[in-house]
Amino acid sequence: MTTTFFEELNNEGPTGVAFKNVNLKKKVISYFANTGNATIAELGKELNLSVPKVTSLLNDLIQDGLVQDHGKVDSTGGRKPNVYGLAPNSGFFMGIDVKRHHINIGLTDFQKNLISSFDRHPYELNNSEESLEELCQIINKFISELPIPKEKILGIGINLSGRINHSKGYNHNLFDFHEDPLSKIIETEIGIKVFLENDSRAMAYGEFYSGVVTNERDVLFLNLDYGIGMGMLINGQLHYGKSGYSGEIGHIPLFQNEILCRCGKKGCLETEASGWALVDMFKEKLQAGASTVATRDNINPDELRLEDIINAANNDDVLAIELIAEIGEKIGRAIALLINLFNPELVVLGGSLASTEDYILLPIKSAIKKYSVSLVNNDTQLKVSQLGEMAGVIGACLLVRHRLLDLNTAN
pTM for this structure? Predict the structure, then answer.
């Protein structure tokens, strides 16, 4: 029985001729996805392959439903050649962005178009077997309601917070209950190849290749949420560091305080300048008698969430605006440190706190000007995420696309 490309793609260890053929098919699909339709002669020239070999590859991919013969193309003379390209609905990539209180899910095609999505699906992220099981149930339900066959989904990218070994599929902070990689455990429940990624890095990837980044090659993306994470584009490449854990800006020891961070250390940036810190500060103010619209819907102050404070700020709540400005100044101080170190072309602010726009952006800009070297920061732009809530979903889809096809660039 002939093996399909989908089966070959998920084969853990193809060798010899099979390995070579899989890679050649990936190159053909990558060319169509990134460049567009082509004739056999054009593909042969681009991929340095013979006409018979290209014809054989195309026939296999047509049989698998990935490629389509689009008919004759106009030519200046002689016999008109056929032009080939990706078939409509040939394959899809799914991205899941797991937040603390909700999940965002999306599906893209080979051309990076968002085909289907839903955001802010209620979900409570806890480090428990029950929470992991619920996550798998939500993913399976989304897949079952899609208007496409499950086998057309080539891979799933799942973003989680914490220290993630993306190459081996482990998360050392969440759902680390078994010897097997977390990616394999979820893969068994879903039945589709799964890739794990740190949430901030996936959001960064989405912005780098489908968001606010244009031609910049050195970019820092800050995920301002309950915690503070960072993704880095250095010389056009996503930077992981030696062990894959780069970007832990939230845990730089910026303050002389005795506040215990969630990492177990004291004085981290997150202890005074994160969503966690903002919630704690807000609760302290309420206990001291401050008033706010955040609790007007009979929300128990002890159950106050970051989203409640952000909504209050966007409704001109004085307390929320003042405290966001306070942590914004401290975040700006950390960004000034990064600018002095990396001299980036662009710094992008994303995550839920970035949605407060000028309330956090203005104090950040003021602190950058105050604490960074003028000669260095003059060449650094500061922008807010263009993809917003969907940055992680888009990034997860693009990363799966990139890894499954082994693309040299994420065009």
Answer: 0.89
